[in-house]
């Protein structure tokens, strides 16, 4: 099986990806600086069960400080999931974390990838945030990106860098624009995790704006399937794909579903709309379906139920 690298391996999506790759018999080098954007204890918990695998190596280091030419010598696939996430925290003082971790780190990786003889694929985790308030819903990949947050700007810059390194040096990149991924191990700053935690602690759920915003929610196992396809399908090289859950849902309806899952009414606390939040997102995933064979499998109710079980266990 293949030797692979997962950056951001202790994170939400990265840990699921590393786990799946190991289950399939691959050798996995997980890289994560385990910064304190959220509680590092949670990140260590995400991958605690992987350390027992002889096929798994974990490197706790900043991407920009690694000897990439040596690391990439016999690596076939890199899944670049590491990023400074979070739309709301990307304004003001924290912005440099975004330029360093999203743009500079990606450039360092690409620069090494252009000379990596055995590299067959570099899968880059992009985001629906590059679209901002898209004029067309559902949004397809040819819509001009117009991010509404500094976070979206840095992710778009990194994605475009991938495109440049593909065009000029033949680096075999694929970019996946994730639409709101959720499920077990979801980051604590993300809505569903926050909501379920509030319900558990019998507190009101904070809702930005009026609750009528819509999102395309993607269950984490569907995002993983997209990554595995992106790493193997020949026609995917050099392309950008939307990865969505297949249905656009109003936040207020999601809360109704949550109330049914937890079996009690939910207290809501409406707060001011956050700067940089897109009003609506919806993915046109037809390109991913055609080329990657992507087909979301997990319904929102089923996915939310899995996340609720995980949150209960986490804070038990």
Give the overall silhouette.
globular
What's the N-to-C terminus distance?
38 Å
Q: How many E-type strands?
A: 13
Main beta sheet, described? 7 strands, parallel
Oligomer: single chain
* Cα-atom radius of gyration: 19 Å
Provide the low-confidence segments as ranges.
Answer: none
Report strand order across the widest sheet. 3-2-1-4-5-6-11
Mean pLDDT: 96
Query: Helix/strand-derived class?
Result: alpha/beta
Question: Mind explaining what this structure looks like?
Answer:
The protein is α/β, with parallel strands linked by helices and 316 residues long. It contains ten helices and 13 strands. The chain has helices at residues 12-23, 40-47, 68-71, 95-113, 150-169, 191-200, 220-230, 251-262, 286-292, 300-314, and strands spanning 3-7, 27-31, 56-59, 77-80, 121-127, 173-178, 181-182, 205-208, 214-216, 218-219, 240-243, 248-250, 268-271. It has a seven-stranded parallel sheet with strand order 3-2-1-4-5-6-11, sandwiched between helices. Strands 7-10 form a two-stranded parallel sheet. Helix 5 (150-169) links the parallel strand 5 and strand 6. The longest helix has 20 residues, at 150-169. The protein is globular, with a radius of gyration of 19 Å. The relative contact order is 0.14.
Q: Which labels suit this protein?
A:
single chain; alpha/beta; two-stranded parallel sheet; 316 residues; 37% helix; 17% strand; 7-stranded parallel β-sheet
Secondary-structure map with pairings?
Layout: E1 3-7, H1 12-23, E2 27-31, H2 40-47, E3 56-59, H3 68-71, E4 77-80, H4 95-113, E5 121-127, H5 150-169, E6 173-178, E7 181-182, H6 191-200, E8 205-208, E9 214-216, E10 218-219, H7 220-230, E11 240-243, E12 248-250, H8 251-262, E13 268-271, H9 286-292, H10 300-314
Parallel strand pairs: 1-2, 1-4, 2-3, 4-5, 5-6, 6-11, 7-10, 8-13
Antiparallel strand pairs: 9-12
């Amino acid at each position: 099986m293949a030797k692979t690298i997962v950056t951001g391996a202790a994170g939400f999506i990265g840990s699921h990806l590393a786990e799946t790759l190991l289950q399939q018999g691959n050798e996995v080098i997980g890289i994560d600086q385990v910064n304190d954007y959220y509680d590092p204890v949670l990140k260590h918990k995400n991958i605690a069960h992987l350390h027992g695998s002889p096929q798994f190596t974990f490197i706790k280091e900043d991407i920009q400080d690694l000897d990439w030419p040596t690391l990439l010598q016999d690596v076939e696939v890199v899944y670049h999931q590491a990023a400074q996430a979070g739309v709301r925290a990307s304004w003001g003082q924290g912005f440099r974390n975004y330029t360093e971790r999203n743009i500079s780190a990606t450039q360092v990786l690409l620069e090494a990838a252009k000379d990596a003889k055995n590299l067959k694929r570099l899968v880059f985790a992009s985001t629906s945030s590059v679209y901002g308030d898209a004029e067309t819903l559902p949004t397809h990949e040819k819509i001009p990106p117009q991010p509404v947050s500094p976070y979206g700007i840095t992710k778009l810059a990194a994605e475009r860098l991938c495109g440049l390194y593909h065009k000029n040096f033949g680096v075999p990149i694929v970019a996946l624009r994730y639409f709101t991924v959720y499920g077990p191990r979801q980051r604590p700053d993300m809505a569903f995790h926050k909501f379920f935690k509030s319900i558990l602690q019998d507190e009101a759920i904070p809702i930005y704006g009026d609750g009528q915003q819509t999102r395309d929610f993607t269950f984490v196992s569907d995002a993983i399937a997209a990554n595995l396809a992106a790493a193997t399908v020949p026609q995917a090289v050099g392309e950008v794909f939307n990865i969505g859950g297949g249905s656009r849902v109003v936040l207020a309806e999601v809360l109704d579903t949550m109330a049914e899952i937890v079996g009690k009414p939910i207290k809501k606390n409406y707060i001011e709309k956050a700067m940089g939040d897109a009003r609506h997102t919806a993915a046109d995933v037809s390109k991913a379906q055609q080329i990657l064979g992507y087909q979301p499998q997990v319904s929102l109710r089923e996915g939310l139920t899995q996340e609720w079980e995980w949150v209960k266990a986490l804070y038990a």
